[in-house]
Amino acid sequence: MNWDQIEGKWEQAKGKVKEKWGQLTDDDLTQINGKRDQLAGKIQERYGYTKERAEEEMREWERDTRW
Questions:
Q1: Whole domain around residue 13: which residue ranges?
Q2: Looking at the 3D structure of the chain, how many domains does it have?
Q3: Are 34 and 13 in contact (CB under 8 A)?
Q4: Does 1 have pLDDT greater than 80?
Q5: C-alpha distances in Å from residue 9, one per residue of 34, 44, 53
Q6: How far apart are alpha carbons 50 and 44 in whole angstroms?
Q7: Cβ–Cβ < 8 Å for 46, 24
């Protein structure tokens, strides 16, 4: 699934995001509101990842998540 689809279905995607990155809060997900760059930033902040690692995890998640 590409990010435009994820952004369009953000309410449904939030649950899957929480499954993958459980340290993200509901407030984080509301603030992110489907914006890919904001999700990457929150993953970096909560997990202490580099930008590259956050981006790689997001690419894997996009590729592997079933809807």
A1: 3-64
A2: 1
A3: yes
A4: no
A5: 8, 23, 24
A6: 6
A7: yes
